[in-house]
Design goal:
By secondary structure, this protein is an all-alpha fold. It is built from 2 helices and no strands. It has one domain. Helices cover 85% and strands 0% of the residues. The longest helix is centred in the middle third of the chain and has 58 residues.
Length: 75
Amino acid sequence: MAYRKKTLRTMSPTARRVARLCGELDSVSRRLHNLVPDLQRLDLESGALFNKRAYEEQAAKEVEGETEVVFEEPD
């Protein structure tokens, strides 16, 4: 919660520090709360990218396996 200057001036130095820390805590928790949707999206996208790379690697291995068989020299 934000305090007015007049209210802060009437507080003791210790109370001002506590008020400042409470305001900072509110600010940090608000920023973290706003980051949650971004983190969820990034987690989903990273999983999709991981699966895509695994699929492409498997497809490349299958293609390499087919090309080896096709170009095999007869005995």
